[in-house]
């Protein structure tokens, strides 16, 4: 099972209703053989843009983050169930990314264009596309015949 | 006269002797050492402080966004390396799609945040 991060936006509602809604969404994961590692409340606040769902525009939402492991085949199923949930405004699921180690290449990118590797590649490509010119081999520096 | 001049230029010491002295003498500088005057390589601000860009950290992400149009600034303005800029843009798009961050707006509370770069002075000229 792959670790996922599930972000759910609930509509603003009183606490007991919110707890039942959270339980409902959590049970949807458990029923499909998933498990929740962490459940985080990101707060109730105004959304950055108006979100229309369930036939109503929403300008405020309660943000919740679920860190869970779900079998990948069941994700579409869970998303489908959440989309039919009246209390959920928006949901999004992302694979949990592990930060990879890499070296900063800024010093290479700060060089003048002809020294940069990607520019050199483009130049090589342009050179390859150049049309071959026909050489007459007449030994003269001008074309002897009428054009 | 020419031959005399050439003879003067040729060292009197036999070549064999010179080579031996160079290999044994401790005072001869070591030419294989790395350049002590080499400048420190410049690093972008995220690599320097080892910051991992995350789509939940909206405060950091919105520092790379225009406060007028919400546009994500390019590499020539932010001064990030290629990889970090790529990561940053994917994370911003994730945050925008999950309803945490605006597409065209910046949160008013983030407007007073310190500027990490000068928008007016990009590294490379651009057409805007
Ligand atoms: Zn970097």
What does this 3D model show about the protein?
Chain B: It comes from Phyllotreta striolata. The complex is a heterodimer of chains A (147) and B (128). Chain A is of the alpha+beta class. Chain A has a domain of 94 residues: 2-Layer Sandwich (Alpha-Beta Plaits). In chain A, 29% of the residues lie in helices and 35% in strands. Chain A has a four-stranded antiparallel beta sheet with strand order 2-3-1-4, with helices on one face. In chain A, strand 2 and strand 3 form a beta hairpin. The longest helix of chain A is centred in the N-terminal third of the chain and has 17 residues. Chain A is elongated. By secondary structure, chain B is mainly α. Chain B has a domain of 66 residues: Ribosomal protein S18 (30s Ribosomal Protein S18). In chain B, 36% of the residues lie in helices and 0% in strands. Chain B contains six helices and no strands. The termini of chain B are far apart. Chains A and B meet through strand 2, strand 3, strand 4 and helix 3 of A and helix 6 of B. Bound molecules: zinc ion. Zinc ion binds next to helix 3 of chain B. The site of zinc ion has 7 residues of chain B, from helix 3.
Percent of residues of chain B in beta strands? under 5%
Largest sheet of chain B: none
CATH class of one domain in chain B: Few Secondary Structures
Tell me the CATH topology of one domain in chain A.
Alpha-Beta Plaits
Residues in β-strands, percent of chain A: 25-35%
Which segments of chain B are poorly predicted (pLDDT under 50) over 5 or more consecutive residues? none
Which class best fits the helix and strand makeup of chain B?
mainly alpha
In short:
The complex is a heterodimer of chains A (147) and B (128). Chain A is of the alpha+beta class and 147 residues long.
């Amino acid at each position: 099972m792959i670790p996922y991060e599930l972000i759910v936006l609930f509509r603003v509602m009183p606490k007991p209703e919110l707890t039942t809604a959270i339980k409902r969404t959590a049970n949807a994961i458990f029923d499909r053989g998933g498990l929740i590692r962490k459940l985080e409340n990101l707060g109730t606040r105004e959304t950055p843009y108006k979100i229309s769902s369930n036939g109503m525009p929403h300008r405020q939402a309660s943000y919740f983050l679920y860190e869970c492991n779900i079998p990948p085949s069941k994700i579409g199923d869970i998303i489908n169930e959440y989309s039919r949930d009246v209390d959920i405004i928006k949901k999004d699921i992302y694979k949990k990314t592990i930060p990879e180690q890499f070296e900063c290449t800024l010093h290479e990118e700060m060089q003048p264009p002809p020294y940069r590797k990607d520019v050199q590649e483009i130049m090589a490509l342009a050179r390859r596309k150049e049309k071959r010119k026909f050489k007459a081999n007449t030994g003269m520096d001008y074309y002897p015949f009428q054009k | 006269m020419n031959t005399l001049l050439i003879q003067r230029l040729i060292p009197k010491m036999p070549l064999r002797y010179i080579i031996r002295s160079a290999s044994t003498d401790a005072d001869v500088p070591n030419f294989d050492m790395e350049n002590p005057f080499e400048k420190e390589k410049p690093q972008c601000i995220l690599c320097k402080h080892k910051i991992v860009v995350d789509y939940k950290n909206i405060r950091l992400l919105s520092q790379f966004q225009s406060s007028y149009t919400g546009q994500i600034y390019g590499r020539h303005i932010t001064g990030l390396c290629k990889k970090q800029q790529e990561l940053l843009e994917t994370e911003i798009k994730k945050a925008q799609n999950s309803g945490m961050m605006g597409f065209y707006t910046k949160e008013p509370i983030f407007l007073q945040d310190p500027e990490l770069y000068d928008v007016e002075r990009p590294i490379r000229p651009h057409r805007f």
